[in-house]
Amino acid sequence: MAKNHFITGLDIGTGSIKGLTVLKKQDSPNFEVLGRSEKFSLGIRRGVIVDPETVSKNIRWVINQLENESGQKINDVYVNLGGSHIFCTPSHGTVVVSRADQKISKEDIDRVLQSAQAFSLPLNKEIIEIFPKEFIVDGERGIKQVEGMKGVKLEVDALALCAFTPYFNNSTKAVLNSDIQIGDIFPSALASAKAVLTPHQKELGVVLIDIGAGTTSLAVFQEGNLIHTAVFPIGSAHITQDIAIGLQTDIDIAEKIKKQFGTCILNGSGSNKKEKILASQNSPLVFSRKMLTKIIEARVSEIFNLVQKEIKKITPQPLLPAGLVLTGGGAKMPRIIELAKKELKLPARRGFPQEFSEIEEDPSLSAVCGLVLEGADWSKEPGFSGFSAAGKGILGKLKKIFKVFIP
């Protein structure tokens, strides 16, 4: 008998905490959205939870709202991990095939992936995920599926994703202290990539740029594999702060100005136009569109410059015919796609969640939708009977072993 699953994603961001609960029927490819909730964030700085107690209270509020809307008790969530403390490093593992008939087994794959994690890291840093790029059997490279092959020596070239342990612990503590168990934890960029990128784009070569409030996350895929990721401590909230300083106004007025008049590139005809908005004590604030656009363009160009530098670190340099996909709340900025093409010399487009017909095309929902999709993938695992506190993926390390390649 087909079993239905209730899946909840929780996107803990610098600007807000977003929750999404869906019903996934085993006999249907579609998701039924049962509840959505969002609350302004406190206790989070540049993607990092610095006050777990405050964040726990806000998470509890979001969960209560979701339970009221969905009519379901929520026990487990799929949650993201953000912050510029996340970094990646290449790794390599080698083992001798264990079976007498020299057939490579799941246990051999397990051991070689564990071997790829056997390298030293600085204090308070830990590996949270391992992504194989290719397996090597007796010197033969470029193999993705090795189970059942014959060989003597099995190797793997992989990408190790690492994080600052205290910040990682803060994330788990904030969720668990809100009386919710964790189904799994996923880096924000990979959750967004799950929602907005197609397998074809990942195969060709693509760069995902997720512009949040406090951080910008980067994920680069080629030949179906994650080959690089990074997080920068700059996001759309910094644009608002720049406007507040540049126009000498308070942060709330700056946010209104950004949303109402902001653009990354200004048409020549409107460069000298003056705008007016009511500021504090109902006194008007007059500013030029040219100055506002100059402020915004400088900060967004800085983000793209960091992206370009990060891409140049990849060896060998990837071909990226699928170009750039911009998502996250910061991707809503008018004409940001044009600026991205100009700065990075690649094709570019906005990315929206693709498998949620009931949700509007909103790039700020990419991460929370991606978390739900990851949860749906787990519901397909053999023997899956619900979401438990045992922990999978980052927590239980099972994902590293059995879910070898991200599609």
Could you explain the architecture of this structure?
The protein contains eleven helices and 18 strands. The protein is of the alpha+beta class and 407 residues long. Strand 8 (125-137) and strand 9 form a beta hairpin. It folds into three domains: 4-84 and 165-195 and 353-402, ATPase, nucleotide binding domain (Nucleotidyltransferase, domain 5); 87-164, Dna Ligase, domain 1; 199-351, Nucleotidyltransferase, domain 5 (2-Layer Sandwich), CATH 3.30.420.40. 32% of the residues lie in helices and 30% in strands. The relative contact order is 0.16. The longest helix has 24 residues, at 289-312. Helix 1 packs across helix 3 (165-176) and helix 8 crosses helix 9 (336-344). It has helices at 52-70, 106-116, 165-176, 188-196, 199-204, 236-246, 251-261, 289-312, 336-344, 366-379, 398-402; strands at 4-12, 16-25, 31-40, 44-45, 48-49, 76-81, 87-96, 125-137, 140-143, 153-164, 181-187, 206-211, 216-222, 225-232, 274-278, 284-288, 324-327, 348-350. It is globular. The strands form five sheets. The protein has a five-stranded mixed sheet, sandwiched between helices. Strands 14-13-12-17-18 form a five-stranded mixed sheet, with helices on both faces. The protein has a four-stranded antiparallel sheet with strand order 7-10-8-9.
